[in-house]
Design goal:
It is a single chain. The chain has 451 residues and is α/β, with parallel strands linked by helices. It folds into two domains: 83-345, Aspartate Aminotransferase, domain 2 (3-Layer(aba) Sandwich), CATH 3.40.640; 351-449, Aspartate Aminotransferase, domain 1 (Alpha-Beta Complex). The chain is built from 13 helices and 13 strands. The strands form three sheets. It has a seven-stranded mixed sheet, with helices on both faces. The protein is globular. The protein starts with 8 loop residues before the first helix and ends with a helix.
Length: 451
């Protein structure tokens, strides 16, 4: 057994002598003297009570979403989190759950994961889902590699309206295997009209393509025209990959209904707070015939020797289990606790509750768009249908508009100039069921004062 007793003075001297150092200070001789143990202008020490009061006072200087209207989305969405979720996922058996590798002592954990997979399948219209990937972005990368393995091709098409950060992760995932990525542009950047993308996207499909990745609703909030797209891909032997928003699926058709072969999405926002973006949980579902190339863990139902129902990890094709060259991915874990939060959320709301969330998003975002469209110097870009996000053109650069909105105590939208230079005057604005009419009217009033 290893010893956890700290090293003795003699042992330290032996190590120093071995590496040719005369003292501990000699180890840091390359650090300039003025930077090594500099005098710090620190205030006098405080008691624990005083520190808590000081830190709490500092925290009150921050903007927070409980007290500040925010219209920022762009991939991270604020939905209502029922109190029951925190109470349930904080139970000790979930916080300290045993590894699901040993099903004899992990039936609760395995059942919870199985329920998550079932809900992902119901939402997406897929036949099978895994125990999660890390987030939607890594799900996009995994889906591309999975499609290449299924088709034995190394060419992936991705629409330019897929989240730009997802596309960055996709490039990282595909660099090692030498997979070619082609970004397909299908929206008219010079005209304010709705998207007619099928022909634009389908024109790039040929016998070298493994898959086409689209986002529904896309990064700009618009709904893609997907009719016939899956059929065009299937005729070429390729797969349609859809990045979906689970809250929007309360209202929209499941991707499986229009021919998707693989569906990924971010589950965190249906069940958890924004948390500065993380931790996250990626949904990942596919058609049944693709299951043996699906990455990550999969929990399956079984029957034991006495005929009792149980749950086990199945089809374990990760590199921990089989030879690396045959592994479907190197995903080492599942975001099981966040997946559990999303599972509880979906069970609490049910189909009708999730539909109501989506309907409120639609109603509120369209109300706000109508109000902003009536302001002098502002317009709503494109007449494409949208669920909870839309693009507003502003009379000033979007970054300046956001800066002035902050002075009005409001967090604005996403500056699309970071995504496309020609949209530097455009904000991506988001409304969810958490957005109140007072919040929207306050934003419209502040926009009207910006010069």
């Amino acid at each position: 057994m290893p010893s956890f007793v700290p090293t003795t003075a003699r042992e330290r001297d032996e190590m120093l002598a071995t590496i040719g150092a005369s003292s501990i200070a000699d180890l840091f001789r390359d650090i300039p003297a003025d930077l090594y143990k500099p005098e710090l202008d620190m205030p006098p020490g405080l008691s624990e009570l005083e520190v808590l009061r000081h830190v709490r006072a500092l925290s009150e200087l921050n903007l927070d979403l409980d007290h500040t209207p925010s219209f920022l989305g762009a991939g991270a969405y604020r939905h209502f989190t029922p109190s029951a979720i925190g109470a349930l996922i904080s139970r000790g058996e979930f916080l300290t759950s045993y590894t699901p590798y040993q099903p004899e002592v992990s039936q609760g954990t395995l059942q919870a994961i199985y329920e998550w997979q079932t809900l992902v399948c119901e939402l997406t219209g897929m036949d099978v889902a895994n125990a999660s990937v890390y987030d939607a972005a890594t799900g996009v990368g995994e889906a591309a590699r999975m499609a290449c393995a299924l088709t034995r091709r190394k060419h992936v098409l991705v629409a330019d309206t897929v989240h730009p950060l997802h596309r960055d992760v996709l490039r990282t995932y595909t660099t090692g295997p030498d997979i070619k990525i082609t970004t397909v542009s299908g929206w008219n950047r010079s005209a304010e009209d709705r998207l007619e993308r099928v022909e634009d996207l389908a024109s790039s499909i040929d016998a070298s393509v493994a898959c086409l990745i689209i986002q529904q609703p896309n990064f700009l909030g618009w709904l893609e025209n997907v009719e016939g797209l899956a059929e065009r891909l299937k005729a070429a032997g390729a797969i349609l990959v859809v990045v979906a928003d689970p809250a929007s699926l309360g209202l929209l058709r499941a991707p499986g209904e229009y021919g998707a072969g693989i569906v990924v999405g971010e589950g965190k926002w249906t069940g958890g707070p924004t948390d500065f973006g993380g931790p996250l949980v990626g949904m990942f579902g596919c058609k049944g015939e693709y299951v043996r190339q699906m990455p990550g863990r999969i929990v399956g139902g079984t029957v034991d020797g006495d005929g009792r129902r149980g749950f086990v990890l199945t089809l374990a094709t990760r590199e921990q289990h089989i030879r690396r060259e045959k592994a479907t991915s190197n995903i080492c874990t599942a975001e099981a606790l966040i997946a559990l939060a999303t599972t509880i959320y979906l069970c609490l709301l049910g189909k009708q509750g999730l539909r109501e969330v989506a309907e409120q998003c639609v109603q509120k975002s369209h109300y706000l768009a109508d109000q902003i469209g009536g302001l002098n110097g502002y317009s709503v870009l494109s007449s494409a249908p949208y669920v909870k996000e839309f693009v507003a053109r502003c009379p000033l650069p979007a970054a300046e508009v956001n800066r002035q909105l902050l002075s009005h105590g409001t967090v604005g939208g996403y500056d699309l100039g970071r995504f496309a230079p020609e949209l530097a005057d455009s904000l991506l604005l988001c409304c969810t069921e958490m957005t109140t009419r007072a919040d929207m009217d306050r934003l419209v009033s502040a926009l009207g004062e910006i010069r």
